[in-house]
Specification:
The structure is a single chain. The protein contains seven helices and two strands; from the N terminus they run αααββαααα. By secondary structure, the protein is mainly alpha-helical. It has two domains: 122 residues, Winged helix-like DNA-binding domain superfamily/Winged helix DNA-binding domain (Arc Repressor Mutant, subunit A); 41 residues, no CATH class. A two-stranded antiparallel sheet has the order 1-2. Helix 1 crosses helix 3, helix 1 packs antiparallel against helix 4 and helix 1 crosses helix 6. The protein is globular, with a radius of gyration of 19 Å. The two termini are 31 Å apart.
């Protein structure tokens, strides 16, 4: 599975809104959300409209307006967000629970590819449906604070603003689950 830019930007925007909320910001402007991760403003605006229609976020107009997370972050499952923005998690339609379509093979019940892709779907769903936006925000903030790293919504005097790249950008020890495990030690 590969996230579309729409899902990636939507998740980034929501995570950043959650971080801002945890840091005491009630509302965040679209321009701040776009600037935070160098995202295209108009695209973020379209994504936020979809999230608003689905009642994950809301907005307030005016001088102190902006977007905010409408539902409690602890009730927003990451899998639900991805399904909203990208559609089914299954890599092929005959392995999907929410958007099933008949397989093109002659014997769907004994199709090895279908069986494998059902396991792939289940593994992804088990992780994405287990964790909430609140979990992701908490792990992200903990790592930022641990590393004394900067973030757009942290005041510059609270943290050293650094844009460092990890030596191995796909190191499993740098993943979300590793962040959860290290917090329970």
């Amino acid at each position: 599975m590969k996230l579309s830019k729409k899902a990636e930007y939507g998740l980034r925007a929501l995570i950043n809104m959650g971080i801002a909320e945890e840091l005491g910001r009630d509302r965040v402007s679209i321009s701040e959300l776009a600037a935070c991760d160098n995202l295209p403003l108009k695209f973020v605006e379209q994504i936020l409209m979809q999230l608003r229609e689905a009642e994950y976020v809301d907005s307030k107009r005016g001088k102190f307006g902006g977007y905010f997370i409408k539902k409690p972050a602890g009730e927003i499952r990451m899998g639900d967000l991805i399904r909203l923005l990208d559609g089914p998690l299954a890599p092929i339609s005959c392995a999907s629970q929410s958007a099933y379509q008949k397989c093109s093979c002659a014997d769907e019940a004994h199709c090895g590819l279908r069986m494998l892709m059902i396991d792939v779907r289940n593994a992804m769903a088990n992780i994405l449906d287990r964790y909430t936006l609140a979990d992701v925000v908490e792990v992200t903030l903990r790592k930022i604070r641990r590393d004394n790293a900067g973030h757009f919504f942290l005041k510059s005097d609270q943290a050293q603003v650094a844009s460092s790249q990890p030596e191995d950008p796909a190191d499993p020890a740098d993943g979300f689950l590793a962040g959860l495990v290290s917090s329970k030690k």
